[in-house]
Amino acid sequence: MIAVTPAAAPDVTVVGIGADGWAGLPGPSREALAAAEVLIGGVRQLALLPVQPCTGERVAWPSPLRPAVPALLAAHSGRRIAVLASGDPMHYGIGRALTEVLGAGGLRVLPHPSSLSLAAARLGWPLEDTEVVTLVGRPAARLAAALHHGRRLLVLSAGAKTPGEVAALLREHGFGPSRMRVLEQLGGEQERIGVEARADDWPHPPGDPLNVVAVECRRAPGAARLGAVPGLPDTAYEHDGQLTKRHVRAATLGALAPAPGELLWDIGGGSGSIAVEWMRTHPSCRAVTVERDPVRAGRIARNADRLGVPGLRVVTGAAPAALAGLPLPDAVFIGGGLTAPGLLDACWAALAAGGRLVANTVTLESEALLAEGYRRHGGELVRLAVAHAVPVGGFTGWRQAMPVTQWAVTKGMPSGFRDPVTISPGDDR
After folding, report:
1. Residue 379's closest CA among 393, 360, 358?
2. What 3-state class would DSSP assign to 387?
3. How many CA atoms lie within 13 A of 270 on its CB side?
4. pLDDT, tens digit, for every residue of 300-336?
5. Which of 105, 170, 246, 272 is placed for a possible disulfide with 300 were both Cys, Cβ 3.0 to 4.6 Å?
């Protein structure tokens, strides 16, 4: 995003406003809007302001909004600007984009009670015990990762159709018995809190586009239970056999050690299970899966949608060439293609100090590469063996799965140093 230079930085105040409009604003917010020479906001928000005393030039946000922010602010530099935001500007609001452009010291923020705070107050739900999921500008599939029996969710709607989409998603994922309520125009004269109903037989047609959906999650009897930690059942994935199996997957994610905001490269994605479960550990975790087979790449995308992480980026191509231009990772997992010339070196070079690399294999040829990597860089070289109890005639015995050799290593280098290696298409060192 293009930043506005300090010399040209405009005088910006961000004013939170609710459905009650001008009448619900405190004195400082009214004063800022009355003094503004330029009023920027959504069409609905601008319509809430009276002509007097709000005499400033009115500018509606263009679409798409975020790329337009720097240029729009620069166009009005030297003028007093008031930006309207729904509720609390710093909670899923425009305040984030403005701060990225102007810096925290480049604007004044006057928040208003958010629709989430108002919803919690109406329902009697403590916000600290309630998970918030926004579907504004985001696919409904991301809600799936938050579905756990007994949890309360507040869903920020993208429009009038969102409640119906939420009900359909709950049914699809085995949460049809969940209880739903739609809260419309919170804080305004037209405020309405709908009656509670099950997602299984959601009876309500689309209503007001300004709404929040409250969900009390209830899993249907017999529906699959998906936990919050890595090691989901293998049956949770669509796959053709190219799947890091459950117990090895849990050990692999433990070695990768995801943390909020980090980015994973998942190379040789197969079914995408490592990247999916990396992203499920925290909403801010990101991942890129590289898979050379287009059919498997499509399967990875479907698994990501089904399991609530539609933001997983799938790159179809062979590594290391397909790594060109990708954002540099905090961790790398190599589940396939280890024998591709230069792959291990390219992944190692892409990691900064503290970055983790984990590679799994079941073949002797790839195992030799991992042993050499262990000799050069250290880390931990382990063999994971899993056996399952199976019927043997009228008795029960153990069936051994192929053992998996795993190399896990953390890159240790002086702070701020990164290997001066550029990955370019066709680079097969």
Report:
1. 358
2. strand
3. 20
4. 999 999 999 999 999 999 999 999 999 999 999 999 9
5. 272
Q: How many CB atoms lie within 10 A of CB 347?
A: 22
The CA-based angle 388-393-399, given to 5 degrees, is: 20
> Which two tokens mark 169?
């998603």
Place of tokens 């043997």: 392
CA distances from 26 to 15, 20, 139, 227 (A): 10, 12, 35, 44
Note the residue count of the chain: 429
Looking at residue 63, what is its pLDDT? 86
Instruction: Give the pair of three-digit tokens for residue 413.
Output: 């280098």
Pick from 86, 139, 138, 158: which is nearest to 117 by CA?
A: 86
Contacts (Cβ under 8 Å, ≥6 apart) of 312:
272, 275, 276, 279, 287, 288, 289, 300, 301, 304
Place of tokens 């790398």: 332
Q: Distance (Å, rounded) from C-alpha 98 to C-alpha 353?
A: 31
Please compute Rg for the chain using Cα positions: 26
Q: How far apart are CA 171 and CA 287, in angstroms?
A: 28
- Return the SS3 of 108: strand
pTM: 0.87
Q: Which residues contact 391 (CB under 8 A, 6 or more apart)?
A: none
Query: What's the CA gap between 66 and 401, in Å, rounded?
Result: 50
**Which of 110, 86, 90, 85 has the alpha carbon at shortest distance from 100?**
90
Cis-peptide into 53, omega within 30 deg:
yes
